[in-house]
């Protein structure tokens, strides 16, 4: 009976689907275990073999937990809103919802492309997902709850005193009774103090404007990353090297009125919560750095000749007397107010220039020094001396207050800035000499940034104090003159929540007199309207500005035509949509109760599942998704919905599977002259590609070549001349000569990536397929190796469609089966490390599965018997039980696969076909290779699925050695071995050895001087 993976796998995938084998129950007596993958964005490119790595790992773990008796929730869905689908729709003229649906379910898109579909690809790999709970963030029945959560945020405020969020109605009650003077809230910085009587006298619009300064989500003018090419705001993690990750468009800093969320209110809780979760230290550190807690002081500097104050947060108030100049971020609102007319032109030019650089780029660039003097001066709070005020792009508007009190003697960046502009005529006298306020420290070459062993000098009342003493004394003095206070600051900024896109969740918001109003939850969802164009409108409004039916009728509580807006009963709706992270910030809770129509999840479901026990996903989400998810979870807990403070107990980041790119080498015009080019003619000359080894010969200097290789190189040059129409008789002898020199000293041929499907495991290119790959390659000439093959170059890179190095799991499954793919991906190496994909290794894993099959079957059928297992059989099995259980719990999946191979080899050599061994072996293999395990289980006579059969119990007694194979030596030279029971005494061992025929033969009638025996180790006869 032959192993036929395709037939077996199709059979069991249908069985699992029909019987809902992996559906989790919300009412079970079993202990629960919730295993979650970061769900995918369904792109048209589909899955490549790198994508399933984390899914296979989580599936192995989920199946193992079922074997251990857990009620396992292992769901899957799609993060289906987002910019990629919108951009694809713009380029191809398709509706994003159509392309998203086809990408998930499969089919033919508008361009006629056959799309495999994520669902079919995932099913083909045999995952034990509970598909009955599938979610898609772009479905109205899902995003109605995202809209509802937004409303909860809008209707909440954060109390500093109690450290949690409360309903805004409670805040209104406080305002009505006692005003806001004693309210300790996370709110805008410029909130005016009012009494109860003043509050009660305000109009409804005035009250709404004040409440917006307290709400957890609010409208505000914010510095954002604006991408004109995409027509939208981008998050920091959507920008790479100053351009958009999607499309590579320039990004500038721009002020816009945006929805924002007060994630900063949760900064300390987000920081402290990291101590309570089992995540890698690197991910925790990324979050700590992003939150960026720092303790110091807020200091106020009055601007001379202006009624303005520059507020600065500093972690080093002890250095207050070392302030040499001040630097504002170019976007700081005070810049335009304090700049002198003489400096205005230069300031405006600099602001325009720096607006083109992202915050991330500015933070990373520590080498470039740039800035402009404003012409204005601030007043030192103690000495009252004039301090020049500059702007510089190393200061960020979104960090701290957007202003820095520069102390060059104690900060490297300030030091470099001061030295760069010191004595520069263009600085207009705006850069004083650097002050040194550290005793016995030389700052002639560099700043002294350490807090250790500091003694303050040249600092009035701080002289002689150390860092801690001076810090406290400075803060006390600042508080006395009302120009400062001690403060804890965080780098974490409020999250911009608006996107000028179409394909995202609509806000449940309409506007009355320009102020936002929430649509009542009972009327949700507010469904994304149809539009003809997905680009911004001609007057710059977001794409929803193109919608003809996008206004809110407050009388009938429904969306109506925009031309009916009368601002009496029918009002305009919000035109922005929510960002991509909105739907993914709570999705794990929806899986708990995916079909609940009235709530995002019932209290009972939330209480039962609580939180995710194991979360697996990429480290690229270290700050963005994971931070926002933790924020929303904490907020929902404050409001009595989420049952736990943290959403994900344990997090594992799988490493990336890298592609092995294939390169061909084109002989470029920088290496050779061609006919026609030297006479200004255009000739129909072919592309010439040189094989890897020939290329390497061509690149070597003549002087290092042997006589044989030199001849080969000359012949190679002649071949290139002939095939590529290079350097022929039309060229002068002198030109040929100079060109030949150029050949011998050439750089490299131009490497060009080619589709890896055209290359075999021996790196040989399929020449015919290559020539038909592109129109301009049809007539290509190829310089081949001596054996007539074209050998490509190889390089390990990120697996990407654009690199042509993608291997699809479908191809592997079709040829070898999904179980082979699953085992191979787990076998590649430690889960958390990056590793290159090498298709050549697949056949070895496939061979292992065939060998496993042969333990159970021969050509005539089942060969399993009821024979008693031998000690060796039991030892092989129980070694594997122990190893596999330990490895899965520690996520060391690659070593489990190695143990399977060892076990099967041992059982094969032992000629073991015992049911007592092979039945538990099938269960052990099941988490990794579930299809073959199910079939083996069925063929052994079982009638139920193997998926929930108890995991075999390890019995240590089978690994206890009862015998020892002793090496028997004569005068230190081993002559033979003998197996003896371990419980024998020295005397008993000696008696057996001395009577052994082999001993008698070696001694040849002699008596040894000494018999050395160490029980369990050695036997040595001496003399």
What does this entry look like structurally?
- The protein is α+β, with helices and mostly antiparallel strands.
- Helix content is 34%, strand content 18%.
- It contains 32 helices and 38 strands.
- The strands form 11 sheets. Strands 12, 13, 14, 15, 16, 17 and 18 form a 7-stranded mixed sheet that branches.
- α3 packs across α4.
- The longest helix is centred in the last third of the chain and has 19 residues.
- The protein is globular, with a radius of gyration of 37 Å.
- One of its GO terms (molecular function) is aminoacyl-tRNA deacylase activity.
Q: Major beta sheet, specifics?
A: 7 strands, mixed
Strand content: 15-25%
Kindly give the count of domains: 6
Record field, number of beta strands: 38
Helical stretch tally: 32
* CATH domain class name of the largest domain: Alpha Beta
Question: Rough shape?
Answer: globular
From the 3D coordinates, which CATH architecture of the largest domain would you assign? Alpha-Beta Complex
Helix content: 25-40%
Multimeric organization: single chain
EC number: 6.1.1.4
Domain Leucyl-tRNA synthetase editing: 288-478
Motif ('KMSKS' region): 798-802
Main location: cytoplasm
Question: What is shown here, in short?
Answer:
This is Leucine--tRNA ligase. This protein has 32 helices and 38 strands.
Properties at a glance:
alpha+beta, Rossmann fold, Isoleucyl-tRNA Synthetase, domain 2, seven-stranded mixed β-sheet, six-stranded mixed β-sheet, 32 helices
């Amino acid at each position: 009976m032959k192993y036929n993976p395709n037939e077996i796998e199709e059979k069991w995938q249908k069985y699992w689907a029909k019987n809902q084998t992996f559906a989790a129950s919300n009412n079970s007596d079993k202990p629960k275990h919730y295993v979650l993958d970061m769900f995918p964005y369904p792109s048209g490119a589909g899955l490549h073999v790198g994508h399933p790595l984390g899914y296979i790992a989580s599936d192995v773990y989920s199946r193992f937990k079922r074997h251990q008796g857990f009620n396992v929730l292992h769901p899957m869905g799609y993060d289906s809103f987002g910019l990629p689908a919108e951009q694809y729709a713009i380029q191809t003229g398709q509706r994003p919802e159509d392309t998203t649906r086809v990408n998930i379910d499969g089919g033919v898109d508008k361009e006629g492309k056959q799309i495999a579909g994520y669902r079919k690809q995932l099913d083909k790999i045999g995952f034990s997902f509970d598909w009955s709970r599938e979610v898609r963030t772009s479905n109205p029945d899902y995003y109605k709850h995202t809209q509802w959560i937004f409303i909860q945020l809008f209707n909440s405020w954060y109390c500093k005193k109690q450290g949690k969020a409360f309903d805004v109605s409670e805040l209104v009650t406080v305002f009505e009774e006692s005003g806001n003077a004693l309210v300790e809230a996370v709110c805008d910085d410029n909130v005016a103090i009012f009494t109860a009587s003043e509050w009660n006298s305000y109009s409804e619009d005035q009250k709404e404007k004040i409440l917006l300064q307290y709400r957890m989500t609010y409208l505000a003018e914010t510095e954002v990353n604006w991408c004109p090419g995409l027509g939208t705001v981008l998050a920091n993690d959507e920008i790479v090297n100053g351009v958009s990750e999607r499309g590579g468009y320039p990004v500038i800093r721009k002020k816009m009125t945006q929805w924002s969320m007060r994630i900063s209110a949760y900064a300390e809780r987000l920081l402290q919560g990291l101590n309570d979760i089992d995540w890698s230290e690197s991910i925790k550190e990324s979050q700590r750095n992003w939150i960026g807690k720092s303790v110091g002081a807020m200091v106020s500097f009055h601007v001379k000749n202006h009624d303005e104050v520059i507020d600065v947060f500093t972690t080093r108030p002890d250095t207050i007397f070392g302030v040499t100049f001040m630097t504002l971020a170019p976007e700081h609102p005070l810049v335009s107010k304090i700049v002198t007319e003489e400096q205005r032109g230069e300031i405006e030019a600099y602001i325009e220039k720096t607006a083109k650089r992202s915050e991330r780029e500015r933070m990373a660039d520590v080498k470039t020094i740039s800035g402009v003097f404003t012409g204005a001066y601030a007043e030192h709070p103690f000495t009252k001396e004039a301090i020049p005020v500059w702007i510089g792009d190393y200061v960020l508007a979104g960090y701290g207050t957007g202003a820095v009190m520069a102390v060059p003697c104690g900060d490297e960046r300030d030091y470099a800035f001061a030295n760069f502009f010191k004595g520069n005529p263009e600085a207009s006298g705006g850069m004083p000499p650097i002050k040194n306020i550290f005793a016995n420290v030389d700052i002639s070459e560099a700043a002294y940034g350490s807090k250790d062993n500091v003694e303050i000098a040249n600092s009035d009342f701080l002289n002689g104090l150390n860092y801690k003493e001076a810090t406290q004394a400075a803060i006390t003095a600042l508080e006395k003159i009302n120009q400062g206070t001690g403060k804890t600051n965080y780098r974490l900024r409020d999250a911009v929540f608006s996107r000028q896109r179409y394909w995202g969740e609509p806000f449940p918001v309409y506007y009355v007199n320009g102020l936002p109003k929430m649509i009542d939850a009972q009327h949700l969802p507010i469904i994304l309207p149809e539009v003809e164009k997905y680009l911004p409108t001609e007057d710059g409004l977001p794409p929803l500005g193109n919608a003809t039916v996008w206004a809110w009728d407050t009388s009938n509580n429904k969306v109506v035509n925009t031309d009916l807006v009368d601002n009496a009963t029918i009002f305009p709706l919000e035109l922005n949509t929510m960002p991509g992270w909105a739907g993914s910030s709570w999705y794990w809770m929806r899986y708990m109760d995916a079909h609940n129509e009235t709530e995002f999840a019932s209290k009972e479901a939330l209480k039962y599942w609580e939180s995710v026990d194991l979360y697996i996903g990429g480290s690229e989400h270290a700050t963005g998704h994971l931070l926002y998810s933790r924020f929303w979870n904490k907020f929902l807990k404050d409001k009595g919905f989420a049952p736990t403070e943290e959403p994900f107990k344990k997090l594992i980041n799988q490493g990336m599977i890298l592609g092995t790119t294939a390169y061909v080498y084109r002989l470029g015009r920088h290496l050779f002259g061609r006919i026609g080019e030297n006479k200004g003619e255009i000739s129909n000359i072919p592309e010439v590609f040189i094989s890897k080894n020939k290329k390497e010969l061509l690149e070597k200097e003549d002087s290092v070549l042997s006589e044989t290789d030199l001849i080969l190189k000359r012949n190679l040059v002649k071949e290139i001349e002939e095939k590529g129409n290079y350097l022929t008789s039309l060229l002068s002898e002198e030109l040929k000569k100079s060109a030949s020199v150029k050949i011998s000293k050439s750089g490299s041929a131009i490497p060009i990536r080619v589709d890896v499907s055209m290359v075999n495991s021996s790196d040989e290119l399929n020449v015919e397929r290559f020539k038909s790959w592109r129109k301009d390659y049809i007539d290509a000439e190829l310089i081949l190796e001596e054996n007539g093959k074209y050998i490509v170059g190889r390089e390990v890179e990120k697996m990407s469609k654009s690199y042509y190095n993608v291997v699809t799991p479908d191809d592997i499954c079709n040829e070898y089966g999904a179980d082979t793919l699953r085992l191979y991906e787990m076998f590649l190496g430690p889960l958390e490390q990056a590793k290159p994909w090498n298709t050549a290794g697949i056949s070895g894993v496939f061979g292992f599965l065939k060998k496993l099959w042969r333990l159970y079957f021969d050509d005539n059928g089942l060969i399993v018997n009821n024979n008693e297992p031998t000690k060796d059989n039991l030892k092989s099995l129980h070694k594997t039980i122990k190893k596999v259980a330990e490895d899965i719990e520690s996520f060391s999946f690659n070593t489990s696969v190695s143990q399977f191979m060892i076990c099967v080899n041992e059982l094969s050599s032992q000629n073991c076909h015992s049911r007592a061994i092979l039945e538990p072996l099938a269960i052990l293999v099941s988490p990794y290779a579930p299809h073959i395990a199910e079939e083996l289980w069925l063929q052994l006579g079982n009638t139920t699925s193997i998926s929930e059969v108890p995991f075999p119990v390890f019995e240590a007694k089978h690994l206890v050695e009862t015998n020892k194979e002793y090496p028997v030596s004569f005068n230190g030279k081993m002559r033979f071995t003998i197996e003896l029971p371990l419980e024998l005494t020295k005397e008993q061992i000696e008696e057996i050895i001395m009577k052994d025929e082999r001993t008698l033969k070696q001694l040849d009638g002699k008596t040894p001087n000494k018999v050395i025996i160490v029980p369990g180790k050695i036997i040595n006869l001496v003399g």
